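dude i think i finally got it to work??
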Amino acid sequence: MPVKKGDFIRLDYTGKIQETNKVFDTTNQEIAEKDEISTEGKVYGAISIVVGGGHLLPGLDEVLEGMEAGEEKTVEISPENGFGERNPQLLQMVPMREFKKQGIKPQVGMTITSEGTTGIIRTVSGGRITVDFNHELAGKNLEYHVKVEEIIEDDAEKVKGMIQLHYPNPNLDPEKHEVTVEDGKAVICMDEMAKFDQQKSYMDITLARFRIARDIYENLDHVSKVEFVDVFEKKEETTEEEEVPEKLPEEKEE
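look at this
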């Protein structure tokens, strides 16, 4: 069956900048390491997405529709269907004193965040610093190689796929997520290691759960409610009994 909008699929991809042939993103760990873009803690391998669910660039979503499981394709993405054209208004001049207030010594190429937006310092000249708040791939023509690994049919696997997408963590075992989908409700009990995730704040966890729930009830017509269950179970304490020989060895006579 060809892929259609709303399908849950597992996808492999590698994205390059056409002008330089430089890889900027991939699901393949070997490619990431070869092109020196691997990120510590990132979970590599095919990702689960919903076609048309806003998980990919618009140009990629359009290409996936009509493909079949196992099919591969290379596609060119224009800035319009990628990260947009560069906007000159997003180049801002920032006085040096603003950096001094924060105890920052600005350098070309440094990444900074202002009001929730990330920018890159392009120039440092006297008392004025140019910060570029355009996406680093804005205005770039891109090339993606994509492969549809699988069209996911099982409801529980669809849910697990959304957990992996929105809550990526190399310490979590997807097989340990307990998921039931019945009577219009999806009940999720994640791998217990998620309870000890110190790298995510309460807000991060809440936002991830919201995104998981939204993708489930928006794309599974028979599900209208998503419930997350945290289970804390008492562990039975076990002690190893010392092995005592039934009969002590006799002392040797001298």
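The longest strand covers residues 8-17.
im so relieved honestly
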